[in-house]
Amino acid sequence: MAENSYRRPDPRSQPPYLYPAYRSTVQRAPSKPLIFLPHTHSETSGPVFGQDAVGETDHDLTRQHPGEPRGERIVVTGRVMDDNGRPVPHTLIEIWQTNAAGRYRHAKDNHAAPLDPNFTGAGRALTDASGAYRFVTIKPGAYPWGNHHNAWRPAHIHFSLFGPALATRLITQMYFPGDPLMPFDPVLQSIPDERARQRLVASFDQETVQPECALGYHFDIVLRGREGTPFE
């Protein structure tokens, strides 16, 4: 694959490094102009992940413990594509999220919401030959985060994936349609282009709904290009 096959994303479709309303960017944003380096073979090839690294229940966050997790069960499906709409097969996707009460299973999360002993909130899956993936999980809850007065993050799921090379790695967040907290969230609102923001909102998918079990959502991920998914 040619080194020039990876186009840099449109800056309007991506959140800026510095967005004062998102307070932590003030401390972590670069203070000097970035130096753009040409892509080399190390960025445009690899890494390669073996399928044996993904366990049988890694994609189903509701079957990783002896008991049933609390909350609304959902199925999230979608496809991973490159900037030309071609599927990206056999690529590793990792997700992490809060439980139904809005709490992460993490030592630094001191939110007063309860932990769920049957929900860890992390999963992995490999895309198939058509670039498709599937997760079964619990709809995450909103949570306070101290960014500003009475600040609450909308329900969201974090996604991390590499695609075919390090240059295409993406870390992003999937939101849920109709969430009233989205207009007040500086993480989402930091993306200048409204169309790009909407690419982070999953769509309800009746075809994925499991009768009497789980609602379904669809979330496609485009690694690069004009219609690329905004990343962190």
Short overview:
This protein is mainly β and 232 residues long.
What is the topology?
Blueprint (H helix, E strand, L loop, with lengths): L23 H5 L12 H4 L28 E9 L10 E5 L25 E5 L5 E7 L4 E2 L7 E2 L2 E6 L8 E6 L10 H4 L4 H5 L4 E2 L10 E4 L2 E2 L10
Parallel strand pairs: 1-10, 1-11
Antiparallel strand pairs: 1-4, 2-3, 2-7, 5-6, 7-8, 9-10
* Mean pLDDT across residues: 90
Proportion in helices: under 10%
Radius of gyration: 18 Å
* Count of alpha and pi helical runs: 4
Runs in which pLDDT lies below 50 for 5 or more consecutive residues are none
**DSSP strand count:** 11
Largest sheet, in brief, is: 5 strands, mixed
Q: Helix- and strand-based class?
A: mainly beta
**What portion of the residues fall into strands of 2 or more residues?**
15-25%
Termini separation (Å)? Answer: 26 Å
The succession of helices and strands, N to C, reads HHEEEEEEEEHHEEE
Shape: globular
Can you describe this structure?
- This protein has 232 residues and is mostly beta strands.
- Strands 1, 4, 9, 10 and 11 form a 5-stranded mixed β-sheet that branches. It has a 4-stranded antiparallel β-sheet with strand order 3-2-7-8, with no helix packed on it. A two-stranded antiparallel sheet has the order 5-6.
- Strand 5 and strand 6 form a beta hairpin.
- The longest helix has 5 residues.
- It is globular and about 50 Å long.
Give short descriptive properties of this protein.
232 residues, mainly beta, five-stranded mixed sheet, 11 strands
